[in-house]
Design a protein that fits this description.
The chain is α+β, with helices and mostly antiparallel strands and about 110 residues long. About 30% of the residues lie in helices and about 25% in strands. A four-stranded antiparallel sheet has the order 1-2-3-4, with helices on one face. The longest helix has 19 residues. The mean pLDDT is about 75.
Length: about 110
């Protein structure tokens, strides 16, 4: 009786271990490169975002663009909460800083 129970326990353990080693699947058989991060439908007219962009980064970019700047890039945040970026205004690239108060200043 004991050898039978031991054999069943080993088989059950092997089955659980095998199930944990299965490769993850994507929803609906989608390719991994079509998963979230950016716009999946090019006809939506929505702006694309970097897959690693945070909500705060997207909000900072939107705030800078709302003030008349375009082509916002190289967004970085310092310890004080200021966002620094490079952006275009009147066809000239300028360095801008978005302060936590919402003020934007050129450098």
């Amino acid at each position: 009786m004991k050898p039978t129970l031991i054999a069943l326990a080993l088989i059950a353990t092997a089955g659980v271990a095998h199930a944990q080693m299965q490769a993850p699947s994507t929803p609906g058989g989608r390719a991994m490169d079509s998963m979230p991060g950016g716009t999946s439908n090019p006809r939506t007219g929505l702006p694309t975002t970097s897959p690693n962009a945070s909500a705060a980064e997207a909000a900072a970019k939107a705030a800078i663009e709302a003030r008349g700047y375009s082509g916002v890039k190289s967004l970085t945040r310092d310890i004080a909460g200021n966002w620094a970026a490079k952006a275009m205004r009147d066809n000239v690239e300028v360095a801008v800083v978005l302060e936590p108060t919402g003020t934007i200043r050129e450098q």
